Amino acid sequence: MRELLGRIWTGALILSTVTVAYAAVEPLKPIQMDPKEPAISSNVTKLIEELHYSQPHLDNSLSSAILDRYLDTLDGNRMYFTATDIATFNRLRYELDDRTRSGELQPVFDMFNLFRKRAAERVDYAIKLLDTEPDFTVDESYRWDRSMLPWPASTAELDEVWRQNVKSDALRLILTGKTWQDATKTLKERYERSYKRVTQLTADDVFETYMNAVAHNMDPHSSYLSPRQSEEYRIQMSLSYDGIGASLQLEEDYVKVMAPPLLFQWYSVDQLDANTPILTIRLPAALAVQPNESVALCPPVTRTVRLTIWTTLRLLASRNMYCTMTRPLAAIVNR
After folding, report:
1. Confidence (pTM)
2. Which of 141, 144, 124 is nearest to 77 (CA)?
3. Can you say how many angstroms the Cα of residue 57 is from the centroid of all Cα atoms in its chain?
């Protein structure tokens, strides 16, 4: 999950000044295993056992290692799950070899669904802690690396871990010269963004995370690439980009142009620079995707793309500017 969270980037377009109680809103729909994934799991298992140089056999010992690695990717610092949750997961400890071979992996998705629920609870609690400034004169310590510690025994113990974590985060910001109010705003936005990243993970992401837990137990250089990641890898290795010539980066819900020269020369938009945010990318209906996927498209034929660009003029007035282009759509994504 660490790798996935590093690849998935977004945030709130406008952050409310009211505390968002994530755990109190309507629960997210549980992620279910995609119908195509059982066959993929079975085929990957067969390929590993027959073609990997070490010729491993998925057995109970590997099953136990796979569970540990999967839990490490979900909650490596042991800040979301409790010991009770782990005891429930341990029922699968010697089943994952058979389940990976047969493709019956819905329990793996159930584990992620619980992680997502726990993440909502923790972010909700962390934001509530920001209502009161902690006493920084108290002599106490906080252990950053919890990967080798026991899982928290209860929710109360987990609350204490997060109290110290939030206090530590705030102290680091205050030591840079921020006020408590500024630190509170920064941390609230940070925690909200971290949770939103989790909510944007899809069934493909969860499946990829689990299959990498399987592959990495063979050797550290073996990985499973989802179709999307496989295509991105192919593009990066071939260095064959075609399109509008803009390098883009997602910052919160804005798609910002990072390398815009060709794009803006075409339309003589002199007011725009490398930090100009694109509010929307309007694609043909056949290419409609979620905003966090739009910048990764590279269709083989010419398409018409409409960008809604926000600009601030010298008189501090703002307006929307529309640019319509007919070009093969492609973008290099900075992550």
Report:
1. 0.72
2. 144
3. 32
β-strands 247-251, 318-327 pairing: unpaired
Residue 260 and residue 323: Cα distance in Å, rounded? 13
Q: Is 22 left (phi over 0), alpha (psi -120 to 50) or beta?
A: alpha
Q: Of 78, 115, 122, nearest to 205 (Cα)? A: 115
Contacts of 49 (CB under 8 A, 6+ apart): 55, 56, 57, 58
Tens of pLDDT along 273-313?
A: 445 444 444 433 333 334 444 444 434 444 444 555 444 43
Amino acid at 264: F
Tokens of 39: 């066959």
For residues 251 and 12, give the distance between their C-alpha atoms in angstroms, rounded to a whole number. 10
Q: What is the dihedral angle through the alpha carbons of 52, 56, 60, 66, rounded to the nearest 10 degrees?
A: -30
Which of 88, 162, 119, 117 shows the shortest CA–CA distance to 5? Answer: 119
229 in helix, strand or coil?
helix
Over the Cα atoms of the chain, what is R_g?
23
3-class secondary-structure state, position 105: coil
CA 194 → CA 2, 100, 124, 149, distances in Å? 12, 30, 12, 23
Determine the 3-state secondary structure of 68 from DSSP. Answer: helix
- Check: CB of residue 1 under 8 Å from CB of residue 209: yes
For the segment 179-231, what is each residue's pLDDT rounded down to a tens digit?
999 999 999 999 998 898 899 899 999 999 999 999 988 877 888 888 877 87
